[in-house]
Write a structure and sequence with these properties.
The chain folds into two domains: 31 residues; 79 residues, Immunoglobulin-like (Sandwich). It is built from one helix and eight strands. It has a four-stranded mixed beta sheet with strand order 2-1-4-6, with no helix packed on it. Strands 3-8-7-5 form a four-stranded mixed beta sheet, with no helix packed on it. It is globular and about 40 Å long. Bound molecules: copper (II) ion (CU). Copper (II) ion binds next to loops.
């Protein structure tokens, strides 16, 4: 193998590693995560959830009662989630969003980093 050939081989190898690193960083930065909050026995679980902007939260109502996920301040409102149904919300801005159920004394918080 000539010196020039091996230099080309090393350069190609380095470029490949760099491209792979950039690709995985970009994927990590862009890929949104879906988080699940189970609603059962008149409780949100987990009640305290930390997410990132762009992620989604799905409230899955496994209870025999209808519930809502409604922020105390402006934020989000699921409206009624019937038993066996779910509601998906895509998080748009940073902050701490305390929420409750419009019908029952239930508490949860979504922290958006
Ligand atoms: Cu409720």
């Amino acid at each position: 193998m000539s010196v020039r050939t091996s230099a080309v081989a090393v350069t190609l190898c380095v470029l490949t590693v760099c491209a792979a690193a950039v690709r995985s960083d970009a994927a990590a930065a862009r890929k949104p995560v879906t988080h699940t909050v189970t609603v059962d026995a008149a409780r949100f679980s987990p009640a305290d959830l930390t997410v990132k902007v762009g992620d989604s939260v799905v409230w899955v109502n496994k209870d025999i009662l209808a519930h809502t996920a409604t922020t105390l301040k402006p934020g989000f409102d699921s409206q009624v989630i019937q038993p066996g149904k779910s509601w998906r919300y895509t998080v748009k801005k940073k902050g701490a969003f305390a929420y409750t159920c419009a019908f029952h004394p239930m508490n949860g918080i979504i922290r958006v980093k």
